Amino acid sequence: MSQEKLSALKKIIADYKSVIVAFSGGVDSTFLAKVAYDVLGDKAIAVTADSPSLARSELENAKKLVKQIGIKHLIISTNELNDENYKKNPTNRCYYCKRELYVKLVELSTQINDAINKKNNYHKENNFPNINCILNGLNYDDRSDHRPGNQAATEFQIKSPLLDAQLTKQEIRELSKQFSLPTFDKPAMPCLSSRIQFNTLITVEKLQQVEKAEEYLRSFGLYDIRVRHLGSTARIEADIDSLKIIQNNEDKIIEKITSFGFQSVEFAEYKRGSLLQIAV
Q1: Which pLDDT tens digit goes with each residue over 4-28?
Q2: What percentage of the chain's residues is helix, strand, coil (to nearest 5)?
Q3: Are 62 and 33 spatial neighbours (Cβ–Cβ below 8 Å)?
Q4: Cα torsion angle, 92, 56, 273, 217, sign
Q5: Is residue 247 within 8 Å of residue 216, measured between CB atoms?
Q6: Cβ atoms of 231 and 201 closer than 8 Å
Q7: Do 254 and 227 meet the contact criterion of CB atoms below 8 Å apart?
Q8: Whole-prediction pTM value?
Q9: Which CATH superfamily is domain 2-185 in?
Q10: Residue 157 CB-density burial (10 A; 0-12 exposed, 13-18 middle, 19+ buried)
Q11: How many CB atoms are closer than 10 A to CB 127?
């Protein structure tokens, strides 16, 4: 069944003729970038949005992945933290983030297309194609998730070919493994802002606290973890096996995490969407 869906995906992408892929380096966007490049070659461009909410390790990972795939890669800056609606961190925060992303991607595609029409040096030097549409990595399972960003995708007419081909997350992981993509078993890595308690202000300082804490925890071989920013408290969430490793190193972990500016540290089993349950 997944091979039939893959064929359907290739047909969908081929009909687009030329695309920008919104590329985060996660499971879905990496798979999409790979298929888009296989189908369209140089008529596919991966674009990564860089901002304080993106961990530096994730940006470096994205750079490595595009080199493996072979797709042309651009990094643009987004300024969601300049939007007061985003900074207030409401439960629909992702809408404002995605709106900023899609505004910038539409601007980029317009810039590329205008350059081609004017036949100026920008196009000649970079060999960009005329962009017909922008793609995101929304998959078939995402229909039932809490995803306010989908509204922004609809407003900006962003295409979701994985969804249209009815590819589930598990199928994408299986196909990614067949393609030898290292993301086939990568845990979900949402942006750093997703760690900050809803309806409390998002700041660069808080984002950096979370990033430093999670980077430190990865030094213990822990990857599917979250450091929730609950004001003065850092809540470390992980699966049971990871919590055992944390427990064995609890004193040094607490000492290190508090050195990043937290006053206390607590531990809990990881539950997706846990901050929604305590939104104030």
Answers
A1: 999 999 999 999 999 999 999 999 9
A2: 55, 15, 30
A3: no
A4: negative
A5: no
A6: no
A7: no
A8: 0.93
A9: HUPs (3.40.50.620)
A10: exposed
A11: 8
The secondary element (H helix, E strand) that includes residue 227 is strand 226-230
204 closest CA partner among 261, 152, 254, 279: 261
Q: List the structure tokens of 149.
A: 């960003």
Question: H helices within 41-134, ranges in order?
Answer: 56-69, 84-87, 93-118, 121-126
Q: Give the whole-angstrom CA distance, residue 163 versus residue 144.
A: 12
Going by the DSSP 8-state scheme, the letter that residue 52 receives in this structure is: T
What distances in angstroms separate CA 38 from CA 19, 246, 268, one per listed residue?
Answer: 12, 42, 42
Question: Can 2-185 and 192-277 be said to share one CATH topology?
Answer: no
Q: Tell me which architecture the domain covering 192-277 has in CATH.
A: 2-Layer Sandwich (3.30)
Structure tokens at 280: 């104030």
Distance CA 159, CA 153 (A): 8
pLDDT digit string (tens) for 222-264?
A: 988 999 999 999 999 999 999 999 999 999 999 999 999 999 9
- Indicate the domain borders of the chain: 2-185, 192-277
